[in-house]
Amino acid sequence: MTADQRYDIAIAGGGLAGLSLAKLLAGEGMRVLVLEKDNYPRHKVCGEYISNESRDFLERNGLLTKIDELPQINRFELSFHDGKKRSCQLEPGGFGISRWKLDAHLCEKARQQGADVNENALITGIEEDSEGFVLNTKSGQNFFAKRLIGATGRYSHRLFPSKADQIAGKGKWFGVKYHLECDFPEDTIQINLFDGGYAGISRIEDGKYCFCYLASAKWLKKYSGDLERIEQNVLGQNPVIKKHLVESKVLEGPVTTARFNFIYRTAVQSPVLYLGDTAGFIPPLTGNGMSLAFRSAAVAADLITDHFNGKKSWESVETGLTKYGDQYLGRRIRSGVFLQNLALHPSTFFRQTLATGMFVFPPLLKKLSKKATGKNF
Ligand SMILES: Cc1cc2nc3c(=O)[nH]c(=O)nc-3n(C[C@H](O)[C@H](O)[C@H](O)COP(=O)(O)OP(=O)(O)OC[C@H]3O[C@@H](n4cnc5c(N)ncnc54)[C@H](O)[C@@H]3O)c2cc1C
What we know:
By secondary structure, the chain is an alpha/beta fold. The protein has eleven helices and 16 strands. It folds into two domains: about 5-45 and about 95-170 and about 260-340, FAD/NAD(P)-binding domain (3-Layer(bba) Sandwich); about 75-95 and about 170-260 and about 345-370, D-Amino Acid Oxidase, subunit A, domain 2 (D-Amino Acid Oxidase, Chain A, domain 2), CATH 3.30.9.
């Protein structure tokens, strides 16, 4: 193995958590490697709305600047299954940016800071020895690193197992995204409920809109994976969604993501640290997975930097990240799943009662939207 294939830190997965951590650690003088199975730019399934809870972090660390030039989103609208709508001010609000643009931008930032980001580098195996880790890639190249971070997203069970995977079982949800040209307010994120799922729409860069939905895998089975029929027969039951489907022009998509679950897995599988969705995946309706990916990178970067500078043992790094995972992330995911279950309750009577509650008591909607967001970091 040649010397330039040896790293202080290897990060498996070049998504939001992996790339932002890479930039932060490279900035502290570490030799950092990111292995990403695909390439940049590319479309990913995501609602592409970033909560302002991560805005300070992104700007302060030079990960994303000029956020003011992106669409600013500060209103929330919820439509129920029958199309009735309720809206409120969104606090602290957020902004829209496509994953096409964001991931490629973060990759560039990580590289400028000195991290090696290898694209088309699917990790096929990991071997651990007393010195560190050897990462095997599909192309046959091997890399060595003293420390390893798992940031391969919501399908991490093969490379980075966790006990929680067995409990969660087969993925119960799937997701679809389009970029649209449509007539819709720039400052609003609208979430539209339908039987077994919800569809969000909000603005991203260049005047485009991201239309993204998440639905129960039962619909895939019932309609043999035919998205057009699912959209017509299931999503189209909500008149608000039907209007979007009929009146908008599709610019990009569909991009799809297959079966997944919403669970807290773990933040540490000693001696590997798990970040972003690898640690746990929060429902998009009631959480901000992108901000949580950035938050986990922020927490891990401080801990790893202290270790690198001889101020902390690796055991204390693990203890610090476990605390974040168990006490913060796990709690947010559990409350997100609870709220999502309420919104998607199968009983029509229950849903109508919830909808009526929001009409009779408008502050409830604001309270719920606030619950989905964490403090700035
Ligand atoms: C339908 C839907 C809508 C969403 N909407 C929103 C939203 O509006 N706002 C929000 O904040 N969050 C949203 N999310 C959540 C958000 O997309 C994720 O939480 C976020 O992308 C997590 O970032 P990450 O870095 O952990 O993972 P990812 O961004 O998924 O990155 C993981 C990376 O690892 C790579 N990888 C995987 N396996 C390997 C391997 N073996 N070798 C090398 N590389 C590998 C992948 O290619 C990928 O690039 C949504 C999610 C879904 C499914």
